[in-house]
Write a structure and sequence with these properties.
The structure is a homodimer of 148-residue chains.
Chain A: H1 6-18, H2 28-35, H3 39-51, E1 55-58, E2 64-67, H4 76-84, H5 108-123, H6 127-131
Antiparallel strand pairs in A: 1-2
Helix pairs in contact in A: 1-2, 1-3, 1-4, 2-3
The structure holds a DNA duplex (30 and 30 nucleotides).
DNA sequence: ACTATATAGTACCATATTAGTACCATTTAA
DNA sequence: TTAAATGGTACTAATATGGTACTATATAGT
């Protein structure tokens, strides 16, 4: 089904929540409430987002989290990568030598191209755009493939 | 990491193998050998591909499998969908009512747009193109997003 | 300084999904 | 009639994921 993980989904929900209060610091507790998610889950996700420099954290009372950058400067691709690592459709599209079949399977190049294309598409979508609700069915996105 | 499942990966390997001998019927056993995969796995994948009308099957001795259509007319998207269902990044992008958060989360429309974009990109890649080996790093694909 | 509040890090468990296997029924060419 | 092949179902094992708990550390306020 080519899904993002639930954790990634949650991460984007939390990021969207952090957007809209630019600069304002919100505790994990407050973010959990606002996003209708469980506190431990939100905490876990936030820690990953801090590690990858998407979110700034402040300790102590009245501490919490805020976006490290403007929502326009943060891409969906970055959030996905923060939670689940590099955007790649197959093992072999991450780097050479990860797949045992590599010697006998000629698909690596094509998987890399496809993975790269998808990664670029997600890079082009900013958190700010993501936060903008869209009625469904929305105007479809246009994607061109295999035109080098 | 946004991966396709291994089964899907195998499915494409098998389909690529079936291509190159247009029309020729190959047994699951022969396909397993050629693709360097285990017979039970290949059988399982082939059954799914038959069910979704991508592959034709013939019973009895000298039976086996062949492509149902020309490789140019089969898209990678179809193969993915055959093994793992509709191409969708989140539950909510498949159809309404699958995600409990739907009422409080405004991301559905955007996820649908992104999923659709990726699906279209994969539709544009044919099995024939996939079978054509590409040296890495290949020329990157160009994808445009959020330009309705 | 002390205390309460909040994040940081690590480690853990339970569950769900996926991969892989086995078995028996059915079809069909020789 | 027989043997070779697919069709279908059900099962097992491994892995990944989601979710939780606990301890350490930092800090604002009194």
């Amino acid at each position: 089904m080519l899904r993002i993980s639930k954790m990634t989904d949650y991460a984007i929900m939390v990021m969207v929540e952090l957007h809209g209060l630019r600069g304002e610091v919100l505790s994990a507790h407050a973010l959990a409430e606002r996003s209708h998610l469980e506190l431990p889950t939100v905490s876990k996700v936030l820690k990953l987002l801090v590690k990858t420099d998407l979110v700034a954290s402040y300790r102590g009372p009245s501490g919490g989290y805020s976006l490290e950058r403007d929502a326009e400067e943060i891409s969906v691709a970055e959030i996905i990568a923060a939670i689940e690592g590099p955007i790649a459709m197959t093992e072999c599209s991450v780097e050479e030598g990860l797949c045992a079949q590599e010697a006998v399977c000629g698909l690596r190049g094509n998987w890399q191209r496809i993975s790269l294309a998808i990664a670029k598409a997600m890079e082009a979508v900013s958190l700010a755009e993501m936060a903008q609700p869209v009625k469904t069915p929305a105007a479809p996105l246009h994607i061109t493939t295999f035109n080098a």
